[in-house]
Design a protein that fits this description.
single chain; mainly alpha
Length: 254
């Protein structure tokens, strides 16, 4: 009960800070919207060999990957805000409070998940105007998958931020991680026709499973094994990431 209460208190505070500057939600949406408006219209000829003969087919392939991209990058760069709090002494002052150290992480990460889902809803609504069609139940399950990814990546970002304690060090680390993750997950284009060796390497990228599972959901294929594989892999990695980040918070706020 104490953990839940402390997490709720931290979550409330973080959400209040976010709502005071809601522009950050729309800043996070800007790049995906540019992909949606300027890149997606070019994809129909490229995706035709995969059965994308209509705009709805094209957006069912492209939008799930775009949402996973939003979750990955939105989470991986949350550590910059934590470094600012470290510099301002916010984390230091937490030492004299009886609040759970695990709640310090969980409250922040849940704020990141809510922010990501809000951005995903905006992207989805915009996509409907371009012809995207998806069942509500499948969409909600896809959002659960996105929530796991956002929680995982934000926890990793916080853990690394507590290790390096510098924006100058955090930026290259996160960029080094993000680039191969992006290229090996088939986010913008499926890896169906990629060389065999590239597909085998991508099999070791957990985010490629999340992307494939999300695309299956947007296609209404709930029975596809990739859906449950993506959910299970994401959930397991999320638990591991949260435990690691919680340990780093406990060390920093002793």
């Amino acid at each position: 009960m104490k953990l839940a209460r402390d997490t709720w208190l931290i979550f409330q505070r973080q959400m209040l800070l976010l709502l005071r500057q809601p522009v950050w939600v729309f800043v996070g949406v800007f790049q995906p919207v540019m992909y949606l408006l300027l890149f997606a219209p070019l994809l129909k000829p490229a995706l035709a060999p995969m059965g994308a003969t209509t705009n709805a087919d094209t957006y069912r392939i492209f939008v799930p990957g775009l949402l996973v991209l939003l979750a990955i990058f939105g989470g991986l760069f949350q550590g910059f805000g934590l470094i600012a709090e470290l510099r301002a002494g916010v984390i230091e002052r937490s030492r004299v409070t009886p609040i759970s150290r695990f709640a310090l992480l969980l409250g922040r990460s849940l704020r990141d998940v809510v922010s990501l889902i809000a951005q995903a809803v905006i992207i989805t609504l915009l996509s409907l105007a371009f012809g995207l069609r998806v069942h509500l139940g499948d969409l909600l399950l896809a959002y659960v998958l996105l929530g796991f990814i956002a929680l995982m990546t934000s926890a990793v970002s916080y853990a690394v931020a507590l290790k390096v304690k510098s924006e100058d060090a955090l930026a290259p680390v996160m960029n080094t991680v993000a680039q191969p993750v992006l290229l090996l997950s088939g986010i913008l284009l499926p890896l169906t026709f990629a060389p065999l060796w590239l597909r085998r390497v991508a099999d070791w990228n957990p985010f490629s499973w999340a992307v494939e599972g999300s695309r299956a959901l947007f296609n209404g294929d709930l029975d596809n094994a990739k859906v449950w594989q993506g959910l299970v892999i994401s959930a397991v990695l999320t638990v591991l990431a949260v435990l690691w980040a919680a340990r780093e918070f406990a060390r920093s706020v002793r």
